[in-house]
Amino acid sequence: MGVVAEPQFHVLAVDDSLIDRKLIERLLKTSSYQVTTVDSGSKALEFLGFQEDEQNNISQPFVPPTSQQEVEVNLIITDYCMPGMTGYDLLKKIKESSSLRNIPVVIMSSENVPSRISRCLEEGAEEFFPKTGAVVRCK
Fold first, then answer.
1. In angstroms, what CA-CA distances link 72 with 7, 11, 69, 87, 121?
2. Which of 38, 44, 48, 109 is deepest in the core (most CB within 10 A)?
3. 109 burial type by CB count under 10 A (0-12 exposed, 13-18 middle, 19+ buried)
4. What are residue 119's phi and psi, to 5 degrees?
5. Handedness of CA 117, 108, 90, 32 (dihedral sign)
């Protein structure tokens, strides 16, 4: 009889900055987490199997017929400011989906805007963290 390994905690990191994605990935992998990185909210939704039904305007997870196994994500960490779809927009889509809404979402931003933080937390974000490693401009 074989020993069944416990599944790894899986984090989906979403950030348009390659440097920030690599930093998050490196930090989390040192804690033995499985990390998947994508550069946009739309790619995150695609990875999660999410597709909007344009005819009925209903958002549902989409499982391709060739998909053999379901990807389980335990946590989503996303940047707030991204082109196309903000972290807030991604959060809203996840929380509106019956199959994805239980995945905790953490939002990060290099901008400390109290109204933005409140709005994300009210929409269902677990936490809102400032990016403390923001680039400092030298004069």
1. 9, 9, 9, 20, 23
2. 44
3. buried
4. -60, -45
5. negative
Q: What is the pTM of this model?
A: 0.80
Q: What is the DSSP-derived secondary structure letter of residue 23? A: H
Beta carbons within 10 angstroms of residue 116's beta carbon:
18
DSSP letters spanning 77-122: EEES--SSS-HHHHHHHHHH-TTTTTS-EEEEESS--HHHHHHHHH
Cα dihedral: 71, 76, 82, 86 (round 10)? 100
**Which pLDDT belongs to residue 1?**
54
- The two three-digit tokens of residue 18, written as one number: 């390659």
pLDDT in tens, 10-50: 999 999 999 999 999 999 999 889 999 999 999 999 999 98
DSSP 12: E
Measure the CA–CA gap between 43 and 36, rounded to whole angstroms: 11
pLDDT for the residue numbered 107: 97
